[in-house]
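ARCHIVE CARD
CATEGORY: sequence design from structure
SOURCE FIELD: tokenized fold
FIELD CONTENT:
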């Protein structure tokens, strides 16, 4: 996907995004919601005859890996959509952004078992990181409504409140400290490092959602 952002591949990028738009429109999202949502815990029998709840399916590592790959894919698509809009105003891009924006609450619900263990496995931290990155990238789209920002603030409070409540720690000279890309850390520091990075992303997303609401409120007051 990164290679598609090069200027010589603009035509290929348009074809790719057209395919993405068509695929997203055809996915049976209601069926996926039934499969992934941990809140629907009615018992079902799997192909091997074992009784499983949909909640236990949603907690399986296989589903977590799928959701991680899917969220990463959406992050990349949003980035490519931004490039296509800057280059030639490709028409289907707003449909892609609209659909991905609509999917955010579903993604948060599907990933909730992992989000609830924010200091747990690598997959938990990966999902938190990618969901925050996806939402941050979407905030740069000019057509997002204030109701969406308000909804995301509520989701931040519900799913990422732990990152918002802690104070920032002082940063040393190295500007990458606290980032997953700062590799010269001991194993005992890795978990804290990831938490610091996710905290910064959470606070940044909080600000990205808050400022449009403040601007909108001030604009209404001046009318």
């Amino acid at each position: 996907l990164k290679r598609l952002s090069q200027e010589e591949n603009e035509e290929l990028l348009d074809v790719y995004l057209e395919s993405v738009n068509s695929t997203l429109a055809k996915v049976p999202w209601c069926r996926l919601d039934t499969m992934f949502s941990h809140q629907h815990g009615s018992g079902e029998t799997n192909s091997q005859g074992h009784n499983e709840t949909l909640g236990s399916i949603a907690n399986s590592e296989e589903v977590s890996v799928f959701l991680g790959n899917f969220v990463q894919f959406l992050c990349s698509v949003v980035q490519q959509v931004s490039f296509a809009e800057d280059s030639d105003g490709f028409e289907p891009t707003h449909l892609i952004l609209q659909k991905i924006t609509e999917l955010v609450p579903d993604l948060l619900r599907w990933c909730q078992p992992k989000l609830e263990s924010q200091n747990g496995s690598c997959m938990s931290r990966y999902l938190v990181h990618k969901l925050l990155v996806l939402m941050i990238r979407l905030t740069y789209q000019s057509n997002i409504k204030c109701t969406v920002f308000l909804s995301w603030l509520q989701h931040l409070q519900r799913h990422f409140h732990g990152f918002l409540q802690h104070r920032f720690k002082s940063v040393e000279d190295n500007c990458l400290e606290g980032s997953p890309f700062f590799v010269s850390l001991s194993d005992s520091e890795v978990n804290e490092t990831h938490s610091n990075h996710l905290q910064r992303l959470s606070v940044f997303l909080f600000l990205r959602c808050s400022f449009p609401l403040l601007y909108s409120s001030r604009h209404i007051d001046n009318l």
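CARD ANNOTATION: The CA atoms of residues 176 and 182 lie 5 Å apart. The longest helix spans residues 187-221.
SHELF: design records, drawer C
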